[in-house]
Amino acid sequence: MGQVMVVSSGKGGTGKTTLCAGVASCLAAEGCSVLCIDADVGLRNLDLSLGMADSAIVSFLDVMEGRSSLDDAPASREIPNLRVLTAPMNAEPEDLDGDAFSALLLEARKKFDWCLIDAPAGIGAGFRFAARYADAAMVVSTADLASMRDAARAADALAELQITACKIAVNRVTPRLNGQMRTTVDDVMDSVGLPLLGIMPEDHAVTLAASAGVPLILYTNHGAAEACLHLARRLRGIKVPLMRLK
């Protein structure tokens, strides 16, 4: 059986979606079968970060309501074992059928090694819908105080949903800025109260790859792409040292 992981953040602007896409692409590039689900209902950006903006659109609601199957989820041209279901544009999280979503995820566990759910930022109804049936969670935070505070709230909300396999990824790390803020990755871990899964450097290649319509790991093998690869390998149980940022 595969594993379902929800990727969440306490606030917007942490780079959660690009990190979700980067890790999913790395898992798939190394041979895992991966399904990404964009659960940000009413918005749709995960396909851009995956380099799949021009793919046929199939939403997770289409699968839940029987209009499509998981086999209809579009596959990446560059990484064929990477598939995506987009978020429905005309729906409200409160109106979605949780049992049907649970059934979708059960089928995904049977068909894929990994299913990564890109949850909406915050801890509202959309977040709870996306996270409720996950096996594990990755909380994405930056090193600023507002992001850490909101990430801690997200961690508490995940605990209320009885998702105990939670770790934090610290994104957009710039050593010079962190030094000026007198903030370290250990401070983020202590503030949020979760063990560390990985750190990601600030990297303009993330934006350039999305603009070029190419998965980050195929655009470059340095910076954030390398960090995503390390994080993906840790998820698979491979010991990889933390990146040294200069």
Architecture overview:
- By secondary structure, the protein is of the alpha/beta class.
- The chain has a single domain, classed as Rossmann fold, CATH 3.40.50.
- Helices cover 41% and strands 16% of the residues.
- It contains 11 helices and 7 strands.
- It has helices spanning 16-29, 46-49, 60-64, 98-111, 125-131, 145-160, 175-181, 185-192, 205-212, 216-219, 223-235; strands at residues 3-8, 34-38, 82-85, 114-118, 136-141, 166-173, 196-201.
- It has a 7-stranded parallel sheet, with helices on both faces.
- Helix 1 (16-29) crosses helix 11 (223-235).
- The chain is globular.
- The N and C termini lie far apart (39 Å).
- The model has no long low-confidence stretch (mean pLDDT 90).
Short description:
The protein is α/β, with parallel strands linked by helices and 246 residues long.
Give, in spatial order, the strands making up the sheet with the most strands.
3-2-4-1-5-6-7
Roughly what fraction of the amino acids lie in strands?
A: 15-25%
Order of helices and strands: EHEHHEHEHEHEHHEHHH
Provide mean pLDDT, rounded. Answer: 90
Query: What is the CATH superfamily label?
Result: P-loop containing nucleotide triphosphate hydrolases
Radius of gyration: 17 Å
What does the main sheet amount to? 7 strands, parallel
In CATH, what is the class? Alpha Beta
Helix percentage range? 40-55%
Structural class from helices and strands?
Answer: alpha/beta
Integer count of domains? 1
Tally of alpha and pi helices: 11
Distance between the termini: 39 Å
Molecular shape: globular
Number of DSSP-assigned strands: 7
Low-confidence stretches: none
Any guess at the CATH architecture? 3-Layer(aba) Sandwich
Q: What would the CATH topology be?
A: Rossmann fold
